Amino acid sequence: MKEHPKVKIGEKPEHYNWLPDFVYGGIDGAVTTFAVVAGVQGAALATPLILILGFANLFADGFSMSVGKYLSDKSHREQYERIREIEFRHLKEKPHHEKKEVEEILALYGFKGKDLTRATEIVTSDPEGWVDIMMRREFNMTHENTDPLKGAATTFLSFVLIGFIPLFSYLLKPLTSLSNNHTFVLTSFLTLAALFFVGTVKSRFSAKSWIYSGLQTSIIGGAAASIAYFTGYFLKILIT
Question: What is the per-residue pLDDT for 1?
Answer without folding.
Answer: 41
